[in-house]
Amino acid sequence: MNPVTQPSTPPYVQCEDVFKIHKTQELEVVALRGLDLSVASGEVMAIVGASGSGKSTLLNILAGLDQPSAGRVRVGQRDLLTMNDQELVDYRRAEVGFVWQQTGRNLLPYLTARENVEVPQLVNGTDRRTAGARALELLAQVGLAAKAEHRPNQMSGGEQQRVAIAVALANQPPLLLADEPTGELDSATATEVFAALHTLNEATGVTVVIVSHDRTITERVDRVVTMRDGRTAAEFVRRATFGRERMAMEEFALVDRSGRLQIPREYVDQLGLGTRATVEIHGDHVELRAAPDHEAAP
Ligand code: ADP
Ligand code: MG
Question: pTM for this structure?
């Protein structure tokens, strides 16, 4: 091992050239086609993209619910491509918490909020007293101490999603994945859900990856990666945060190891880009111009 080539802190989540082909009886759908993504430990970031761009496929792979067809996926010390079934079960139990969009899918309807947060701990072998104390602590952190003895149907959608976050973090996983967690909520309620996520991130350092098709999520996190056609396309990074004052986001195109990048759709349209372009270097930048698709016949 050459220590010089080892980065000092490798990303906590690292996806390289990931492909996922969903096979059905009639056809094969390529949901991920060479996706690259890195997430630092302790980050709260979002992945946005149109419906069908592969967001849920990616999140299910990170959750250990589905396996990629090819590529490399590492989370912490684990290689998600080479894990066997038992290792995947252990991974799902110890490493990740998951929040679904459908509020009803996250909670057991006949149990109170406190009991819902206790269940995964009891399953994991935690004693009742410890599980109860941790449930109340987590519910306080998501702002629901007063609703601990309420059942899901006695709570609003936003409150149920905050309980769902507490359930997902009951066994203290280092990674929280949320697939459109505020997709069924109005904006004000979504704000409360994000406040709960940020509180828990600050208290525990949990890494949070949120998937959304809602671009206003850029107001709620410090980094957003956009997906298009099964690949990451661009990244929006906030320059700095001053208390509650959030700075504007800076946009970057993502370049993969082969030098490929996606040109924003509106630029493609504006330039009238077809299948060919000329690319010329000028000092510190390149210029890209639309070229005719093929030589006109003489
Ligand atoms: P998103 O979450 O961004 O809407 P998905 O990851 O759900 O996107 O889907 C990406 C593509 O893969 C879509 O074309 C979708 O129809 C297809 N797909 C997703 N899951 C399956 C599956 N289990 N079987 C077949 N096709 C699937
Ligand atoms: Mg989806």
Answer: 0.88
Cα of 19 vs centre of ligand 2, distance in Å, is: 17
Query: Per-residue confidence of the chain (298 residues) as pLDDT tens digits?
Result: 444 445 567 899 999 999 999 998 889 999 999 999 999 999 999 999 999 999 999 999 999 999 999 999 999 999 999 999 999 999 998 899 999 988 888 999 999 999 999 999 999 999 999 999 999 999 999 999 999 999 999 999 999 999 999 999 999 999 999 999 998 888 889 999 999 999 999 999 999 999 998 778 888 898 999 999 999 988 988 876 655 555 677 888 888 888 888 888 888 899 898 889 899 999 999 999 998 877 655 5
Ligand 1 pocket, residue 56 CB under 6 Å: yes
d(CA 149, CA 163): 12
Nearby residues for ligand 2 (ion, Cβ within 5 Å): 56
Residue 40 sits at φ, ψ, to 5 deg, of -80, 155
CB distance 22 to ligand 1 below 6 Å:
yes
- What is the DSSP code string of 232-260? EEEEEEES-EETTEEPPEEEEE---TTS-
Alpha-carbon distance 113 to 197, whole Å? 17
List, in order of start, the domains of the chain with CATH numbers.
Answer: 1-95+173-261 (3.40.50.300), 104-172 (no CATH), 263-298 (no CATH)
